Amino acid sequence: MSRTRITALTVALAVAALTSCSSGGSEDGAGKPITKQLGQGEITQALPGTGEVLPGWEPYKGKRVTSDGTYCSGLKEKTSPKGWVRGGSAWFIYNGSTDNMMDVDICLYDTAENATSAYAAWKGTESDKEQAPKKKVGEETVFVLNPGLSENTVYAFSRSGNVNIRVKLDGAGGDTTGAQDMLAAALKRLQQVQDGERPTATAGDEAAKTRKK
Description:
Elements: H1 3-22, H2 40-46, E1 57-65, E2 84-94, E3 97-109, H3 112-122, E4 130-131, E5 140-145, E6 153-160, E7 163-170, H4 177-194, H5 203-212
Antiparallel strand pairs: 1-2, 2-3, 3-7, 4-5, 5-6, 6-7
């Protein structure tokens, strides 16, 4: 092979590698931010379902479309956050019992700026209960352990572009690992939908990535 052809091949491989790293398939947990105004059906697709969550958990009463954004607001707020467009949520129960439940919530905003403001309000002001993630999911990530009057519960929040995600996990015992995997899977699924792909990412996929490192 000539030196010219070797150089061309090297450049092509480098471009391919850069393209892969900048796509939604990035291994850094952030990837491409969500910037598209996703439709209701796309948000519903992105929400995880049977076999796409943590082991032992199963869907409870299906995926839900939300008619207003009050669930995306801070604990004391009674109105939808500024710029809220639409959202959806899914509930899960552990081993068939509602004693422990998990919620996955997606909130879409008209701009990243409004999503950022809503994210700050959504996570609350109990900074003494906040815990930084070992690996960021999206552009902002935080865990809040037992906010308000809750006990043995982890709230995980993430923002990517104009979308906020929350995972509420009961019975976690202060362990944020499962919430981290759920956040990462939800964001990856949103990235796949934004790219026009079928959402296939699961919490199990994210857990496997962590185990390999």
